[in-house]
Amino acid sequence: MAFRLCRLRGISKRLQDVFKMQSRLTTTATLEGGKSKAKMWFAFGALAAGGLATGYILQPTVSAEELELHPPHYPWVHSGLLSSLDHASIRRGYEVYRQVCAACHSMDQLAYRHLVGVAYTEDEMKAIALEAQIEDGPDDDGNMFTRPGKLSDGFPKPYPNEQAARAANLGAYPPDLSLITLARHGGEDYIFSILTGYTDPPAGVDIKDDLYFHPYFPGQSIAMAPALYNEIIEYEDGTPATISQMAKDVCTFLKWAAEPEHDERKRMGLKVMLILGLLTFASYYYKRHKWSVLKSRKIVYRPSPHS
Fold first, then answer.
1. Residue 70 in marked binding region
2. What is the C-alpha separation between 73 and 258, in angstroms, rounded?
3. pTM
C-alpha cells in the first residue's frame, strides 16, 4: 500500500513538471509571435512612410503662388563688426518717413526728442515738432483740444484707432514701424526688398482687385501700393531722391528706431574685447610663471645620513 502511494506521488510530480514545461513553451511561443508581428507592422509602417515621402518629393505640380523669394543680403554700412549707423542717412530716412510713410504707418515708440543729437539739433527738432498738431486735454471744461507739438510729444498717429485704419486701407492694417526691422525676418533687407520689389505678376498668377503682386511678400499679394517713386521728395542736402536711395535711407532710420543703442553697444563690445584680451594675457602670465613652481616641483625622499 505504501509502495503504491509513493508511486502515485512520483507520477503526480512528473505530470506537474510536464505541465510546467508546456506552459513555459507556450509563453515563449506567444512572445516570439508577438515580436514577429511587431516587426512585421514596423516594416509595413516604414514602407508606407517611405512611399508617401517619395510621392511628395516627386510630385511634379508646383503652384506659382506657393513660391516666395527670400530677400538678398545687402552690404549695409552698419553691418560691420565695428561699423556705426550712417547718421546722415538716418536724417534723410526720417524725411522719407515724415513725408511719405507717416501717412499710413505710426511709430508709437518714438518721440521728437529722441532724434536730438542723433540726426538733428534741438532747435531743428523743436521747429519740426511745432508743425504737428497734437490732441491734448481735457481742458477746464472737459473738452479735448489741439496744440502745436513739442519735443516730449510722440510722433502723431495717422489714424485714431485700428478700425479707422482698416476702413481707410480696404481692410488692411498698416503695422507700426517702431520695431519693424526686429519684427520681420530679414530685418532691413526685407524692408528694402518690400519697398523696391514691386513687379508685374507672371503668367498664371491672378491677383485680386486692389492688391499688388510682390514676390517678397508672403502670399505674393500685398495691399500696400508702391510708396516710393523717383523724386517724390526733395532731400535737404541735395541727395538725388531715387527709389533705391530713399529705401536705403528709410531702412537705416528704421534700424536706428528699433535699436537706438546700436552704436553704443558696438563701442561697449569693443571695450569688453580689449579688457578680455588684457585679462587673458594676464591670466596666462600668472599661470605660466606663478603656478609653474607648484606644478613642476618634485617630492624626493632623502634618508638621513645618521639613520
1. no
2. 19
3. 0.72
Q: Is 104 annotated as a binding residue?
A: yes
Burial (Cβ within 10 Å: 0-12, 13-18, ≥19) of residue 115 = buried
Separation of alpha carbons 218 and 227, rounded Å: 18
Amino acid at the residue 292: S
239 vs 242: CA distance, rounded Å:
9
Q: What are 187-204's pLDDT values in tens digits? A: 999 999 999 999 999 888
Question: Is 6 known to sit in a ligand binding site?
Answer: no
114 is in an annotated binding site: no
Please state, in angstroms and rounded to a whole number, the distance separating the CA atoms of residues 41 and 158.
63
Task: Give every CB contact of residue 252 below 8 A, 6+ residues apart in sequence.
Answer: 76, 78, 85, 86, 89, 90, 93, 188
Cα 212 from Cα 226, distance rounded (Å): 9
pLDDT tens-digit series, residues 154-166: 999 999 999 999 9
The helix, strand and coil proportions of the chain, stated in percent and rounded to the nearest 5, come to 50, 5, 45
